[in-house]
Amino acid sequence: MRREQVFWGWGEPGAGPSLPEHAGELLREEIGVSGEIVSRPVELDAVALPPSALPAALRERLQAVAEVREDVEARVLRSRGKSYLDLLASRSGDFASAPDAVVVPADARAVASVLQLCSEYGVAVVPFGGGTSVVGGLAGERGRCSALVSLDLGRLDRVVSIDPWSLVAVFEPGIRLPEADAALRAQGLALGHVPQSYEWATVGGCAATRSAGQTSTGHGRIDEQVVALSCVTPVGSLSTLDAPGSAAGPALRELVLGSEGTLGVITSVALRVRRRVEASYDAWSVESFLAGAELLRALEQDGIAPDIARLSDEEETRTSLALAGTGTVGRRLLGGRCLLVCGWQGATGRASAARKLIRGGALPLGPAPGHAWEKSRFAGPHLRDDLMDRGVLVETIETATTWSNLERLYRAVLAALPGLHVGCHISHLYPTGASLYFTVLGAQSDDPVAQWGAFKDAASRAIVSAGGTITHHHAVGRDHAPYLGEEIGELGIELLRTVKTRCDPAGVMNPGKLLVD
Amino acid sequence: MRREQVFWGWGEPGAGPSLPEHAGELLREEIGVSGEIVSRPVELDAVALPPSALPAALRERLQAVAEVREDVEARVLRSRGKSYLDLLASRSGDFASAPDAVVVPADARAVASVLQLCSEYGVAVVPFGGGTSVVGGLAGERGRCSALVSLDLGRLDRVVSIDPWSLVAVFEPGIRLPEADAALRAQGLALGHVPQSYEWATVGGCAATRSAGQTSTGHGRIDEQVVALSCVTPVGSLSTLDAPGSAAGPALRELVLGSEGTLGVITSVALRVRRRVEASYDAWSVESFLAGAELLRALEQDGIAPDIARLSDEEETRTSLALAGTGTVGRRLLGGRCLLVCGWQGATGRASAARKLIRGGALPLGPAPGHAWEKSRFAGPHLRDDLMDRGVLVETIETATTWSNLERLYRAVLAALPGLHVGCHISHLYPTGASLYFTVLGAQSDDPVAQWGAFKDAASRAIVSAGGTITHHHAVGRDHAPYLGEEIGELGIELLRTVKTRCDPAGVMNPGKLLVD
């Protein structure tokens, strides 16, 4: 297997950033924990796995089309994603739901064979790309199935083609974003899709979960970048055409995007890519979160929004200052002001028009906060491991709505999370609205799983009641599935179920995700 | 009923432009017809309709929820759309497939009742918006149904809400585009969606058929403008959320867009709208169609494309000159050069950057050709009536593909249409490709229906073989349905059928459209 993350947390051992110097004070004074390490993940040696329930006859037939691994390490590493809940379980050594085997096909044809075989034997299949789901999308739910395999797409990692003329690149699903980007870089191109999970996420995983990426304001979400895809289901394959626009009926591409492995496995993705340009940053201090939101709305609706826009609310700004310390930049952010970071990729005309507009309502902070953001853009999940060591509850909650409903949704989510330390930022702009991303911290209770269940439910109910989407870019997985019906209605759920049943009559594809079984 | 088009052609009697002065010469020398009027549509009085087959019990129940009309005029006017084939039939007085009744509900609830009743009685329902389909989308196909009603959405024509903060306006489906635009104008806003059928098309019809609109390069296709919609099916309603971006599973909105009335009836559409700005134009003479395409690709991929871009090939340019006569502008287009018209809506910085780029490969023609284009932007279908009076075959064929496949597709379509007069333009730009729009003229044969069938089939086969979409913005309807399988594959067709069966178990919704029965 290729480079792997630690089973109990994010990234490779010791590779990520650690909690900054000032964190101890924050943890003691605001979160109510001592800041000392109070919990450590179990060692792999200590993990006990249930014996593999893979039927012997199926094992033999799978081995004819793909590699099949049943060793402890393979099964542990493919047991789940990287949500707070996932990590609580992994750190405690609970691998009761581990896959019975990890199946590693080498091409789309082998994927098709695996899906057919597992359908025949009624064995659940959880497609595994980068393993970075934070919504239980990789949970070992067996549904009505007798066993479960993790379908590792790591070997489907080829660059199929790059068309610099049309700015279209076709990838196999298992290629990780940095490798896809490296292939493009050789031709002066860039992926233009940079989620926080960039270092580990795969192209197929991003498409299957409708990833947004930190540059979505400038470059569009992955669902806007995908020009065509192929998906292998247990009953056959679907390939959509790469026409840049079409009126040839409903867009079936849009049925596969966001299907989270419940219909089949994405086996190729054609993406619109970008010319590679250097990024530049500027940052601003704005009077308040809502005033900053108004600035962002004006920029976006005037067509001069930055490619990366990130506005922290008062609490998130204060927390960032508390962690980073206050220099010149910090002093301009004191007194309840808010940090706005803008990232520009080329487009200097747009940037100067935007700066003129921003200057009317903000104090300039120079490029430093933007560079600091860029440096730490992938840090969040690494820091989470350190926080969990210290008994801190740490979760993120994200949604989106129209500009006119943004304040209502923001206040509703805050009101649903009393007693927790909650900061928020806007990081994805659209002409008609924006995203809200909340970071939730608190002291873990004695039953952190129940604690999580209670506040997650409260936040999710607040979101759907206030007209937000249950997820702007984390996907549905298992954790948001109970709330999807509120968003798309009974007929919406029925349509998804109908399509699933047509593609996956045996019900083996990623049970319990997207739709509640 | 409200303002109506003539039953045998486009628009109101005498309201449209007529063939220009120079047309006679062109018709004689290039099309091979005399230019004299050789055929006139029948009078309404001469139309014989089959007796209404609407079951008496259904009539009574429909009357309880909606207006029901069975008079000749209502039935004739709702018999079909405005394709060349439609007009051949209407002009000849063939109304054998006329609807048995026209049902006019006043709100979404009444629509639901009509769909349930027609399902119960097995009576086909053809939703009717602007009546402008050019692909047989409104043809009176009964499928397995005993009778057929046209569901006229003319009374669902309200502006539900306008949110200038979020730039979102919600419309009922039957409002025509000029009326929707007028409501927006009062708030300084604009629809930003202007198909050639603008004067008659409805918001719901545009959404149901994935209309592109002449400003799609700047403002996006209707499928990019729709932020949410509601659709009433025989088994219930689907309403999608207006979040500007979401990862909450497959986008069900995209299943309804382009469903062409085969699942149900769109009862409200939330559209992203624009601030209203004045348009300005410039035009250029480029060396060749392919050189012009390269210019457009550069503009689009540099992010400085005009909002409206229209590049005629050598033949279309020559024909325009032949019709308009050659002034100063014309002389700069002689010798096989091509006309490029650019329209700008605001965005002066973008326009100057673009002009600098274009100047390197083109001769300036000033604003006049752009203003001439704007003046005649809705003229095409009016002129078609005059041409049909003169025994001219007149059809348009449109597709789209990636930039790198554009020349191949262009040549393939031209090669499939020997003996006809074919001009082409590019009018919708995307980062990864563009549309191709062919205007086909010829002398009608003794059997114009068979003649149409032969060349349409040849062109359609050429398109799918060369990797183009079977339709970029005219939709599938009945005419493209036989070719859709080539584009989306067997499983794609099966998925559409599965969704249709779930929404419309009785099979009453617009039979024979989108999917071949």
UniProtKB/TrEMBL annotation, chains A, B:
<dbReference type="InterPro" id="IPR004113">
    <property type="entry name" value="FAD-bd_oxidored_4_C"/>
</dbReference>
<feature type="binding site">
    <location>
        <begin position="260"/>
        <end position="266"/>
    </location>
    <ligand>
        <name>FAD</name>
    </ligand>
</feature>
<dbReference type="InterPro" id="IPR016164">
    <property type="entry name" value="FAD-linked_Oxase-like_C"/>
</dbReference>
<keyword id="KW-0285">Flavoprotein</keyword>
<feature type="domain" description="FAD-binding PCMH-type">
    <location>
        <begin position="95"/>
        <end position="276"/>
    </location>
</feature>
<dbReference type="InterPro" id="IPR006094">
    <property type="entry name" value="Oxid_FAD_bind_N"/>
</dbReference>
<dbReference type="InterPro" id="IPR016169">
    <property type="entry name" value="FAD-bd_PCMH_sub2"/>
</dbReference>
<dbReference type="InterPro" id="IPR016166">
    <property type="entry name" value="FAD-bd_PCMH"/>
</dbReference>
<keyword id="KW-0274">FAD</keyword>
<feature type="site" description="Important for enzyme activity">
    <location>
        <position position="310"/>
    </location>
</feature>
<feature type="binding site">
    <location>
        <position position="384"/>
    </location>
    <ligand>
        <name>substrate</name>
    </ligand>
</feature>
<dbReference type="GO" id="GO:0008609">
    <property type="term" value="F:alkylglycerone-phosphate synthase activity"/>
</dbReference>
<feature type="binding site">
    <location>
        <begin position="127"/>
        <end position="133"/>
    </location>
    <ligand>
        <name>FAD</name>
    </ligand>
</feature>
<comment type="similarity">
    <text>Belongs to the FAD-binding oxidoreductase/transferase type 4 family.</text>
</comment>
<protein>
    <submittedName>
        <fullName>FAD-binding oxidoreductase</fullName>
    </submittedName>
</protein>
<dbReference type="GO" id="GO:0071949">
    <property type="term" value="F:FAD binding"/>
</dbReference>
<dbReference type="InterPro" id="IPR025650">
    <property type="entry name" value="Alkyl-DHAP_Synthase"/>
</dbReference>
<dbReference type="Pfam" id="PF02913">
    <property type="entry name" value="FAD-oxidase_C"/>
</dbReference>
<dbReference type="InterPro" id="IPR036318">
    <property type="entry name" value="FAD-bd_PCMH-like_sf"/>
</dbReference>
<dbReference type="InterPro" id="IPR016171">
    <property type="entry name" value="Vanillyl_alc_oxidase_C-sub2"/>
</dbReference>
<dbReference type="Pfam" id="PF01565">
    <property type="entry name" value="FAD_binding_4"/>
</dbReference>
<feature type="active site" description="Proton donor/acceptor">
    <location>
        <position position="437"/>
    </location>
</feature>
<dbReference type="GO" id="GO:0008610">
    <property type="term" value="P:lipid biosynthetic process"/>
</dbReference>
